[in-house]
Write a structure and sequence with these properties.
Blueprint: H1 10-18, H2 24-37, E1 44-47, H3 50-64, E2 76-80, H4 107-114, E3 118-123, E4 143-144, E5 147-151, H5 157-164, E6 170-175, H6 181-187, E7 190-193, E8 213-218, H7 221-231, H8 249-252, E9 261-265, H9 275-290, E10 294-298, H10 306-321, H11 340-351, H12 354-367, H13 373-393, E11 399-403, H14 419-423, H15 430-435, E12 439-447, E13 450-458, H16 463-476
Parallel strand pairs: 2-3, 2-6, 9-10, 9-11
Antiparallel strand pairs: 1-3, 4-5, 6-8, 7-8, 7-12, 11-13, 12-13
Length: 484
């Protein structure tokens, strides 16, 4: 086989299949062999073997009788381990669910499979999505493909690293406070946090129910647009999904750029931002200007409260959602417990990593009698001010351009014992999460051999606008084509 399939995007692989130049079996076999070759990245927790090759053979038989078929047919993808996949182990990277095999799949995964997508495996992540570096997995940290001494970003680090290293075509991650955008930036790929409610959360292991979203990670924005056409839309199993039509993203983004105005919020370019990151983002903004997008400096003063709001609301909702993991109903149970309390205590002690326990304790405290009004209620009130601030800014601009992270990928272990410093990795991520608006990370260059990402924040339910702008940016640049 002369093709380097890992360098082909979804559309190119589809064309090869359509013209009979390659088979699904060969594509799957290629990605499977690469996943085994780069096992040191620790991107996969579960890698399917014989069954995925058998599935590929069936897809080849199906395609042989079709003149036209969906671009996702026969394309192998990976799934964050905190997303349920029927018949495939889904541990959320926590030992308490080490043996959990879901009897159902998340709605977004079912929709991709209905178009012919093939699950290659499940990706390592921070346990239950708790983290910004992918060091909080009980199966070990994920290494960055560009420098294996550095973190891949979290919590969907395994998914971003797998796509970056060419061990799957695309991946499905989950983003609560930056868990798609941070790893996408750290690994040099594109990743979208959709509007809250745009994609179904059914089958996603909940972290913070009022902020969780599920979205795609791929090399290009064009691929993300295709994936969103399949994933997005109303789901009767999730009452929070939006009752709005799903655009033809792939057609919309190819239209000539209209007269967009992009805001540059001064609060995102303040002290603490790495000068090299700022330089790369400013260079990218100049490309957007050359494409015809008007640039305007704006102010979002409530941005400074994003982290504080996030780290009250999220642990509070964490503590409620994680109560179900008790060693009784499913998952791993302590065999040495002397009584029922011991089963709860020992199963959770061994099955949950320190960051998960930390958030449960903080959240339980914030929700306890006498403190609910002072912490959780107050955080929700300030959250409303952030939401209103974003609504007001959309009267001036169509989107916002910001850095993704104030820092480059840092060495594994450097911040492991400093949770407050780790939380600040998400400082530019949390405002969009708090407001429930879409945000996209795209690669815009390198510093010291490590990728730099830029964030495009859009209006709720208007993913097509930020995808549109980023698509034309990627037509003018080649950062998204770089491979480690």
């Amino acid at each position: 086989m002369s093709y380097q399939l890992e360098n082909f995007n979804i559309f190119e692989l589809h064309q090869l299949l359509k013209t009979k130049q390659i088979s699904v079996f060969e594509i799957v076999e290629n990605y499977l062999s690469r996943a085994k070759k780069y096992v040191d990245l620790n991107a996969y927790i579960t890698l399917r073997q014989e069954d995925v090759l058998a599935e590929a053979r069936l897809k080849d038989k199906e395609i042989s009788s079709l003149k036209n078929f969906h671009p996702l047919m026969g394309i192998p993808f990976g799934v964050k381990d905190a997303i349920c996949t029927q018949g495939i182990r889904s541990s959320a990277s926590a030992k308490i669910l080490d043996n959990y095999i879901p009897p159902f799949s998340a709605t977004v995964i079912k929709r991709l499979q209905e178009k012919g997508g093939i699950i290659l495996g499940k990706h390592n992540c921070d346990a239950f999505g708790h983290g910004a570096s992918n060091e909080n997995s009980q199966y070990g940290p994920v290494k960055n493909p560009w420098n294996q001494k550095c973190v891949a970003g979290g919590s969907s680090g395994g998914s971003a690293a797998a796509v970056s290293a060419g061990t799957c075509s695309y991946a499905i991650g989950e983003d609560t406070g930056g868990s798609i955008r941070i790893p996408a930036a750290f690994c040099g790929v594109s990743g979208l946090r959709p509007s809250y409610g745009r994609n179904s959360r059914y089958g996603i292991m909940p972290m913070a129910s009022s902020m969780d979203t599920v979205g795609p990670i791929a090399h290009s924005v064009e691929e993300i647009a295709l994936l969103m056409e399949v994933m997005a839309g109303r789901d009767p199993s999730d009452a929070t999904t939006l009752h709005i039509p799903v655009p033809k993203y792939t057609e919309y983004i190819r239209e000539p750029l209209s007269s967009y105005t992009a805001g540059i919020p001064k609060e995102y370019f303040a002290d603490g931002l790495d000068p090299e990151i700022q330089k790369r983002v400013e260079e990218a903004i100049k490309v957007y200007e050359a494409l015809g997008i008007k640039i305007k400096e704006v102010s979002l003063p409530f941005t400074k409260y994003g982290i504080a709001i996030y780290y009250v609301i999220v642990p509070s909702e964490d503590s409620a959602n994680l109560a179900r993991f008790d060693g009784i109903r499913y998952g791993v149970q302590s065999k040495d417990a002397a009584n029922l309390f011991g089963v709860y205590a020992e199963s959770r002690a061994a099955g949950l990593p320190p960051e998960v326990k930390r958030r449960i304790m903080i959240g339980t405290y914030a929700l306890s009698a006498g403190y609910y009004d002072a912490y959780y209620k107050k955080a929700q009130q300030v959250r409303t001010l952030v939401v209103e601030e974003f609504k007001k800014i959309w009267q001036e601009v169509d989107m916002l351009f910001t850095p993704v992270s104030p820092m480059l990928p840092f060495p594994i272990g450097q911040k492991a014992n400093d949770p407050l410093s780790m939380y600040l990795v998400d400082v530019y991520m949390t405002p969009a999460s708090v407001a429930g608006v879409p945000a996209l990370s795209v690669p815009v260059g390198f510093s010291n051999g490590l990728p730099v990402g830029m964030q495009l924040i859009g209006q709720q339910g208007k993913e097509e606008k930020i995808l549109h702008a980023a698509y034309w940016f990627q037509k003018e640049t080649d950062w998204h084509t770089k491979r480690p």
